[in-house]
Amino acid sequence: MQYLIDQARVFPARAAAHGLDLGGRTHGRRPRALFISCSDARIVPALLTGSRPGDLFELRTYGGLIPRFHPQKPTGESRTIDHAVRDLDVTDIIVCGHSHCEITDAALDEGDPSVQTSAGQRHIVSQLDVLSGYPCVTPRLADRSLRLHAWFYEVDTGATLQYQPHASAFLPL
Ligand SMILES: [Zn+2]
Questions:
Q1: How far is the CA of 116 from the centre of ligand 1 (A)?
Q2: What domains can be seen in the chain, in order of their start residue?
Q3: For residue 85, which of 47, 113, 136, 140 is within the disulfide window of CB 3.0 to 4.6 Å?
Q4: Neighbour-count burial for 126-142, b at 16+ CB within 10 Å, e otherwise
């Protein structure tokens, strides 16, 4: 914990040394994307995408799980998605899964990594289906003002794959 405290204390100096715009002057600017990913500590969206303050609006959940939309039962996740799509008017949503994810490890007893990878990739595509059912998302997919992307990050190599619907497969970005 002390390491984190020390880093937070010197952050203003580190940011200034790197000429980092902290985004205070660009409050309300549209983020480049809504990035939905697993809470796993090995996934660092800003590092992966070279993002700076203001670039990514993030939603992190266990396994990148997105709850189905229920109008009578809004959740923290559904409010986050709604805010990104309606208020921030994002044009892209990335749902990013990863290898060695506990949620697919837990779902499968098999130790075969390729089985776990394909299960993890299917899981991410199924989250896009859930997302497509959100009332804020559906009309914007229809008028093509919003695009959904399924990514799969390989923890051991640092490579990222993207789902290509025409190939029904995850291919390198
Ligand atoms: Zn995970």
A1: 12
A2: 31-172 (3.40.1050.10)
A3: 136
A4: ebbeebeebebbeebee
